[in-house]
Write a sequence for this structure.
């Protein structure tokens, strides 16, 4: 396998499971030094580094990023995979305000905090790759998933802003909007919610973790140098814009 990320340091939030673990494994296979930011430790691939982090707490994020830089020297890549769905299959008037806030704290503010605190080190060397994992729910809205859909829409909006702000710096900021991907998070959703989402996919299936990792690896690669502020599609034909 090509070593596109030789000597690069990649920070992955939510990297101990699901999409985060798949992306971390792929980048490590291509030569990156991996720094996992997550709430709980899990067995890492050889050479991985773990930093216990609550991405919904800016002070926790700031400490972890400082520790990554202290131990590993820099940050070249940030991939924000940490996310929660919150309570689903509930109409807007029945939602819990606290649940909506909790989902935003992880999904939007987590991505905001991490990008805020890695950008200075990337700007110092005029190079960096940031990828926010969003969702097709942030483009189209999934009924019964107000908190999740709105928080991912906010991530997409932030990506557009950041892409424009840093377009001349050598730092690119993009998002990836998957449809439903077969992960433990999806396995914990009600069956009717998963069916609602897969029924909208022309391919009539979930995406795979390997497919997400393949696309993420390209987005954060040095070769992807003329795309920023963009939300990539990974939806089996559901979103074609």
């Amino acid at each position: 396998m090509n070593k596109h990320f030789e000597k690069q340091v990649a920070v992955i939030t939510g990297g101990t499971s699901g999409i985060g673990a798949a992306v971390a494994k792929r980048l490590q296979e291509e030569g990156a030094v991996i720094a996992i930011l997550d709430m709980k430790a899990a067995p890492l691939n050889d050479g991985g580094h773990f930093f216990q982090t609550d991405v919904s707490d800016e002070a926790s994020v700031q400490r972890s990023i400082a520790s990554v830089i202290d131990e590993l020297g820099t940050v070249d890549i940030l991939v924000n995979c940490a996310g929660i769905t919150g309570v689903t299959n509930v109409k807007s008037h029945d939602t819990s305000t606290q649940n909506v806030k909790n989902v935003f704290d992880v999904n939007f503010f987590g991505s905001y905090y991490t990008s805020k605190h890695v950008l200075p080190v990337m700007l110092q060397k005029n190079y960096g790759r940031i990828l926010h994992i969003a969702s097709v729910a942030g483009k189209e809205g999934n009924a019964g998933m107000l908190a999740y859909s709105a928080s991912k829409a906010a991530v997409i909006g932030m990506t557009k802003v950041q892409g424009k702000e840093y377009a001349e710096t050598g730092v690119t900021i993009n998002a990836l909007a998957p449809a439903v991907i077969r992960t433990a998070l999806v396995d914990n959703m009600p069956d009717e919610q998963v069916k609602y989402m897969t029924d909208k996919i022309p391919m009539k299936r979930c995406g795979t973790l390997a497919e997400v990792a393949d696309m993420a690896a390209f987005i954060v690669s040095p070769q992807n140098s003329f795309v920023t502020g963009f939300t990539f599609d990974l939806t089996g034909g559901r979103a074609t814009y």
Summary: Strands lie at 9-13, 33-38, 49-52, 77-80, 128-133, 171-178, 231-234.
